[in-house]
Amino acid sequence: MPIVYQEESKQFYLHTDHTSYVMELYEDHLIHSYWGSRVNTIPNVEYFYPFSYGVSTSAHDIPGKLLNSTDKLHREYPTYGTGDLREPALQVENAAGDSITRLRYESHRIYPGKPQLPGLPATYGQDCETLEIALFDAFSGVRTVLFYTVFPQKDVLTRSARIENRGDKPFRLEKAASFCVDMHREGFEVIHLQGAWARERHIHRQAQSAGTMVFDSKRGVSSHNTNPFIALVSPETTEQYGDAYGFCLVYSGSFSAQVSGEQFGSTRVQMGIQPMGFSWELAPSESFQTPEAILVYSDCGLGEMSRRFHRIIRENVCRGKFRDTERPVLINNWEATYFRFNSEKILALAEKAKQIGVDLLVLDDGWFGKRNSDNCSLGDWIVDRNKLPEGLEGLCNKVNDLGMQFGLWFEPEMVSPDSELYRAHPDWCIHVEGRPRTEGRQQLVLDLTRPEVCRYIVDAVSSVLRSCPISYVKWDMNRNLTEMPRKGFAHEYVLGLYRVLEEITSSFPDVLFESCSGGGGRFDAGMLYYMPQTWTSDDTDAVERLYIQEGTGLVYPISSMGAHISAVPNHQTGRTTPVAFRGKVAMMGRFGLELDLGRLDQATLDALAAEIALYKTYQQDIHTGDLYRLLSPYKGKTAAYQIISQKRVLVFIMNISATPCQAPLRLKLQGLLPEGRYKELSTGEVYEGRTLMGAGIPLDARGEYCDFLKVFEIL
Ligand code: DGJ
Q1: Are residues 578 and 678 in the same domain?
Q2: Which one of 84, 476, 541, 626 is the catalytic residue?
Q3: What burial letters (b/e) apply to 598-625, b meaning 16+ CB within 10 Å?
Q4: To test ligand 1's pocket by mutation, which of 362, 367, 535 has the most ligand atoms within 8 angstroms of CB?
Q5: Catalytic: 538?
Q6: Last residue of some domain: 570, 593, 624?
Q7: Is 630 part of a structural domain of the chain?
Q8: Inside any domain, residue 321
Q9: Domain total in the chain
Q10: What pTM did the predictor assign?
Q11: 183-235 pLDDT tens trace
Q12: Cα distance between residue 415 and residue 432, in whole Å
């Protein structure tokens, strides 16, 4: 039984194979007792506080008890206004205008499986058990149901909350976090993923500061700048050792993650919808569901934390037929042609691509309306016959005749002011009557809170998808939200988007969808629920990608990251790297190409063909295996990653800069069975796991942009 309530001690135990999360009812307050390595029992909360403290500063809202104030308790879902005056998880404006909420335990239930969250993406599966705890404030009618689902074999806990109005007056939610955890200590280091367009998700690790650290997006999307993921680690934590607590929000809109050092030496961590600009009225008997968060604890470092995130996102967030199957190697024409293409050029690209082993051609931006640059036509999803005289169907058929599948780019959430759609429906974009409409990339965002706008999008995209055999869709989104007309709008937008995505992706189960947002501006678990891969970044430079992909891979699996070999000199950085180096970096993701094959000599085409063949040989190992980060480009000039699948161990080594006169380094492998036997493919030599982990393999780290792939068969 992964979840147990012990009546005598009033404790809830949530066990996974290697972790435990323990809560206690203390005078009907739900308090946090423990989260860490697996335990059988934890003493009651007062055991840990053998003396009284903080007497004069805290309001005594639990009279007669040693811990006489909620201000001292480690609370599961703190509210504001009686004893606990710290940052609340739930902030309500009551009908009378006050912000007081006092939640007390009402009831709980434990059941197998987990419920879907209405209108929201979330983890799913049978191999789990759920605990619901209801807390109630009889004075205001605020009832909160906390959801805890345990995936025991995956060592994962998920949390969310549903807020209900059980009173007879309306109230407003001003903040409703998905979870709160009061950790028993401070002095953590906080890891977060920061960046910008073409520099997404770089890893930042910094000491926890006094006060509150906030990592958030107010952009209407999860954003290029901050990702909805944080981890708290001990200063000594490494890839293989030490405490790592990871938190990932399954949400694609504005969010906030807060880490607050508290007066009595604890740390309050919470995450959820961005409270700024949020407000949600709940009339009597209405309810509000928060997004879900995935919580992972590892006592053996960041590597294991990541692997646990990878498994749950790969198998219990991503859905559809492409979740487990091989996916096509694609070529995208964006960096090959940008807007300057016609069907002849596209077919020439497809023909060459086919010769080197590519399976699918993606026609990117510019195929519709009169779009020869990014200043018009979004919303007019009608093929441009000047560029493609035979129409999409004709082109698609010709690509299919070459033995290749056909894929198409859309940016369905947008409208260009210069478009037929905008001329017909100028009120369909997000705007405030009378205010100027701020453009980004010469475009406006459609108002996905309006059902008729969502209907237009679903119908327009569906009719194109029905018009010919399209096997892949790239769903782009190139700007942030401005001029939002009311509080709560940003969340309403996301709910509208999720409805649209649910309808389209379930109507076309055989289409592979890849999400994109000006590169990786919406790389989150929410989008991965609808589309199993995301374009990681518009920076396709292989060296830059090492940093971006390692940051992304801290939480998201390799199987979810679009990664392409592009031209040299690279269009974003001007750097020139060999095909093989670019190939290995792209193999640490969903491999594809994005360059004009017509400009390449035969030797380069042969080199590309070799990378494609190599990827095809190992793609299932790469996308289903467990990732071990052996050497990080953040720490040195060599990146090394190891993948253990059911059959093989793959070691990818990418060297960024040259070191002359260097003896071979020894690269120690990880995660093998000490007594296991591993046969190196190139030499046929068989090694014991303990040898490969103890003594390592020789690593030639001399050359600039050199790469190695070592493959071991598991005997
Ligand atoms: C941004 C995407 O990230 C690119 O790959 C490309 O599709 C462009 N948009 C097209 O406008």
Answers
A1: no
A2: 476
A3: eebeeebbebbeebbebbeebbbbbbbb
A4: 535
A5: yes
A6: 624
A7: no
A8: no
A9: 3
A10: 0.98
A11: 999 999 999 999 999 999 999 999 999 999 999 999 999 999 999 999 999 99
A12: 16
